[in-house]
Amino acid sequence: MKRESDTIQPNASEYDNFVENYATINGIQIYYEYENVSPEVKENDKKSAVLLVHGWTANRLRLHPLYLHFMDKGTPVFRLDLRGNGWSQKEKINDFSMQKMAEDIEIFIKQVICKNFGFSSVILIGHSMGGSICMKVATTIPSFIKKLILLSTSAYWTGNLFGKLKLGLYAIYYRYNYWNRYNGKKQGHELHGLEHFPMWSSNYDLNGRTLFTAREATIQGIKSLGSFDIRKEIKTLKIPTLIVVGADDIDASPKLSQKIHELIPNSTLVIIPDVNHDVAIGKPITLAKEIDNFLENS
After folding, report:
1. pLDDT band at 8 (very low <50, low <70, confident <90, very high)
2. For a disulfide at 55, which of 99, 128, 173, 175, Cβ 3.0-4.6 Å?
3. Average pLDDT of span 230-255
4. Is the dihedral of CA 21, 202, 171, 263 positive or negative?
């Protein structure tokens, strides 16, 4: 039986129709790409653009199927690499916390998408840790967020002292076993097909510039997850919100998405069967249909 993940064409590692763009945000270089955006700012006025935000140890290409979907529909869509990830700046940075990444995105939305390109608001889509960051952004600059879509994420990642201690030990382990862990990820990615994880492709390894997340960004990301908790703040959100999770997700279980749904008043929860944490890769067609339905009817 053909898998939905096999229908993605072209795959991310084969995709070379892009123009490199960098924005100086908080004094560092943030890499981004976009499609269906008019060079005439006035033509984008009163319109919304989609912004895709990846998760921990990932990059802009992790949500590539969604990027292709919006590109094919003619929807203005942006994607970026978080600081320390993908092709964004990795050196000479001390702070890779989720708080600082959220600040980067807030500025990117205000200065790049809305001011420079003339859009009035964004449809903010975040996966995993990126979804947590997007919730933070939505609570901070709600007037810039038209709709919020959260994929395989959580409002908190550990609720007790034991969990925090476990993540702390995990961070120490990552510091001394960085590449071993990445090789372990590669084996896991083979189940989907490495073409969906272009960090392994030589196409994106250019003169020493790779998609691999910086070591310190990886470690600080774990620590940030341990202290992240936005349950109180999202209770006040009035933004229409779609929450999507795979039924087989063990990294951000459906229970965590259910909790977000209970806390955000104007939210819809969708649990997609037979898919794990990488819902955009495992079920790209189903996910796109759910998102389109939400955007058209909410």
Report:
1. low
2. 128
3. 97
4. positive
Number of residues in the chain: 298
Question: Can you give 192-254 as a three-state secondary structure string?
Answer: CCHHHCHHHCHHHCECCECCCCCHHHHHHHHHHHHHCECHHHHCCCCCCEEEEEECCCCCCCH
**What homologous superfamily does CATH list for 4-297?**
Alpha/Beta hydrolase fold, catalytic domain (3.40.50.1820)
Question: Which pairing describes strands 28-35 and 21-25: parallel, antiparallel, or unpaired?
Answer: antiparallel
Neighbouring C-alpha atoms within 13 Å toward the C-beta of 255: 5
Q: Could you give the angle at which helices 64-73 and 284-297 cross, rounded to 10 degrees?
A: 50
* Residue 224 or 181, more confident: 224
pLDDT of residue 249: 97
Q: Which alpha helices (DSSP H) does 129-206 contain, by range?
A: 129-140, 161-176, 178-189
Q: Which residues contact 72 (CB under 8 A, 6 or more apart)?
A: none
What is this structure's pTM? 0.94
